[in-house]
Amino acid sequence: MAVRTVTPSLRPMNEAEYAKYMPELRLSIGGKAKPIVKPFWDAARFIPRAFGPFVNMEHILRLGLIISNNPDIDLDDNGPPICDAELQQIEKCELRDAFTTYNKLLTLCPTLKQLLPHAQMNAEDFKSVGEFLDQANRNARTDDISRLRDNVMKYIYEVKGIQIPDSGLDKVKRGWNCEATARMLCPRNLRDEFDADPKKFCQEVRNDRRLVDHDEWPTLAYSETEYDPDNLDWGLLKSPFLVKCWKATFKGPSSVNAEAGPTSGRKGGRKTLSKAYGITTVNEYSIMYVTILARFSLSGVASWVTNDHDGPYTGSEFFKNLLFLFEDEEWRKDTLAWWNTSALAKSSASKPLEAAQTQLPAPDLLPLRVSRSNAQRAAANLESSVGTQT
């Protein structure tokens, strides 16, 4: 039987506490978080940075509660069929993933564990909790995108013959409307063709005569020089551009040109994420999160939509492809070691991304399950060689 891990026991709110808390939570949706719910809000804002920007909160909570409340459900592939009508429609591997994520959410947000015993009994309350979490997710992602959008142009690789525009370039004028941003979005295996005639390449993409989707590794994911067309994984994600984006996101834009290492936060202003959440190590989820946001910041898409669509490109599918990479443990260790040295001047990547706070204990960020094998991924790489509003 598959192991069913449940987070440690935590006392639920009593009825009086819950009755006082929920009105304040509802008032916080779409506005400033009320003092009583501020710790929950701060913890929930870390969710996209810990799990990626594509977590469907209501879906995860609903499935997690069904499984938690039915201990006889066997999630093992070889176990008996599941009788629950809703769960029957979902593969057991996906249910295991959802239940793992559910338990990690409860660890990340202890208040959620205190609320759910009551909220699950009231459809409106349950909906409000989901909306609160979604709002916190959106706000965090929007803040991070805004930070990158205003700085990402500074981090683009310089190349002769292509002018890098000012950081204030309108979002819709980026992407394939700008040669500098287009070059970063261009699949790395096609970059020589791009460099030969950037205007023609961009025009072909804009006119849909050339499709660039999520199954191709973009230039932004590599350094300017390290690339092996016969081994696309080599040097992949060891990108100085992405390191700068990571530092701007988690340590603040002023850290990009500073020496690697811990920062104390902005003087006279809001703390950086690394300071606020006690982040001392780079892990794969923070890398993937920043990669998705960096790619979006370079694109000509005006605003974030569900699943991050940009023509044939879908961010949620690109995120899955990034997850596939980290299935290779040797590649994972090497890549994280490089990142910790490059972003934080650390020699080891053995610890998870930490988020040590009273409300926010360090999350154990296990990778979500992915279904495609390394062999399938290699085949896909070989072939490639030929969504809610903010």
Lay out the secondary structure.
Blueprint (H helix, E strand, L loop, with lengths): L14 H14 L9 H7 L2 H5 L5 H12 L23 H17 L1 H10 L3 H27 L29 H7 L5 H6 L1 H9 L33 H11 L22 H4 L7 H15 L10 E2 L2 E2 H11 L3 H16 L29 H11 L6
Antiparallel strand pairs: 1-2
Helix pairs in contact: 1-7, 4-5, 5-6, 6-7, 7-13, 11-13, 13-14
Describe the structure.
With 390 residues, the chain is an all-alpha fold. It has two domains: 15-138, no CATH class; 171-384, no CATH class. It is 47% helix and 1% strand. It contains 16 helices and two strands. It has helices at 15-28, 38-44, 47-51, 57-68, 92-108, 110-119, 123-149, 179-185, 191-196, 198-206, 240-250, 273-276, 284-298, 315-325, 329-344, 374-384, and strands at 309-310, 313-314. It has a two-stranded antiparallel sheet with strand order 1-2. Helix 4 (57-68) crosses helix 5 (92-108). The longest helix is centred in the middle third of the chain and has 27 residues, at 123-149.
